[in-house]
From TrEMBL:
Protein name: Zinc-binding dehydrogenase
Domain of life, per lineage: Bacteria
InterPro entries tied to this protein: ADH-like_C (IPR013149), ADH-like_N (IPR013154), ER (IPR020843), GroES-like_sf (IPR011032), NAD(P)-bd_dom_sf (IPR036291), Zinc_ADH-like (IPR052711)
Source organism phylogeny: Bacteria, Pseudomonadati, Pseudomonadota, Alphaproteobacteria, Sphingomonadales
PANTHER family, A to Z: PTHR45033, ZINC-TYPE ALCOHOL DEHYDROGENASE-LIKE PROTEIN C1773.06C
Enoyl reductase (ER) domain: residues covered: 11-335
Length: 339
């Protein structure tokens, strides 16, 4: 089969096209023909050697996509040949609370991922895709969308009328916007780009704030909410924005940390204010198979359509990575592997 490997991880030019044997399913395993995959920022970090320790140079990257089951090993009952399926890339996290051990089985990182013509997966991890959903709707779900679902629904306990603040217009923030709106919440979103804020408004954002025009954007959040603040904050900014997120949060608010991006001189978080407001602060690492099942049901129920920037052919994978690295995209970047 055709595949890509991460190579020496010294930059985007490390991505290496190779030919490898097609995998076969052992006990409890499934082999899928890959149809469509989706890139995320961590795929860039892997090739640049910035995502933890360097991986084996033969590792096949990419952690989310959709495939068609072509072989089912003994002991698998979740899917059958011909089914389309997806999986949360922490493949051992099926349900319940997170455990650090789940990081030891992370497809695309510790084990081969999606950027190949075929992928072998533990059958227990797979979630069958409902017939009414397109490949484009489900290929981008296992990373940024699942993270947003965990933040807004599982941790945030969003309900109609809540105020949700999403920082930036990256993948997690845009999915948080769409998921929160489907739940009947009011959404505030920030960006340094007026064009991206215009897109956010088209997707349903109620309030948009340009943080370059308004560097004290937390004050704008409070002004827009008559001093109340946001019930749920999807904190994707990292250390540079965490202190402001505490200021922008409502009493009893939930701040969900997704990013740890470091910045020199970042302001310290006011823990006294955390106590005064009775805030809940929680870090998350994407989500479980059970969460992905619930997300799929919500996507089908509300017919949520992902924002797709562009789709590249399999042989154009290096160009897809370069486009992601450029930062000029708006929405998800897909790679079509097979029909």
């Amino acid at each position: 089969m055709k595949a890509y490997e991460v190579g020496p991880q010294t930059g985007l030019d490390s991505l290496t096209a190779v030919t490898r044997p097609t995998p076969t399913a052992g006990h409890g395993e499934v082999v899928m023909k890959v149809r469509l995959v989706c890139l995320n920022n961590r795929d860039i970090q892997v090739l640049e050697g910035r995502y933890g320790a360097k991986k084996a140079e033969t590792r096949i990257p990419v952690s989310e996509g959709v495939g068609e089951v072509i072989e089912v090993g003994a002991g698998v009952s979740t899917v059958a040949v011909g089914d389309r399926a997806v999986f949360a890339h922490f493949v051992n996290w099926l349900d319940g609370d997170f455990a650090p051990t789940y990081f030891t089985k992370d497809l695309g990182i510790t084990d081969d991922g999606w950027l190949a013509e075929y992928i072998k997966v533990p059958g227990s991890a797979l979630v069958k895709v409902p017939e009414g959903l397109s490949d484009e709707q489900v290929a981008p779900l296992a990373s940024s969308a699942l993270t947003a679902w965990n933040a807004v629904v599982e941790v945030g306990k969003v309900k109609a009328g809540d105020i949700v603040l999403a920082l930036g217009t990256g993948g997690v923030a845009i999915w948080a916007l769409q998921i929160a709106k489907a739940a009947g919440a009011k959404v505030i979103i920030t960006s340094s780009s007026d064009d991206k804020l215009e897109l956010a408004r088209k997707l349903g954002a109620d309030i948009t704030i340009n943080y370059r025009t308004h560097p004290d954007w937390e004050a704008e959040v409070l002004k827009a909410t008559n001093g109340a603040g946001a019930d749920i904050v999807v904190e994707t900014g990292g250390y540079d924005t965490q202190a402001k997120s505490v200021l922008a949060a409502a009493a009893n608010g939930r701040i969900v940390f997704v990013s740890v991006a470091p910045r020199e001189g970042a302001p310290a978080m006011n823990i006294g204010l955390v106590i005064y407001k009775n805030l809940i602060l929680k870090g998350i690492a994407e989500g479980s198979r059970a969460m992905l099942q619930r997300l799929l049901r919500a996507i089908a129920q509300h017919n949520i359509q992902p924002v797709i920037d562009s789709t590249f052919a399999f042989d154009e994978a290096p160009a897809a990575y370069a486009h992601l690295k450029s930062g000029s995209h708006v929405g998800k970047i897909l790679i079509k592997v097979a029909e």
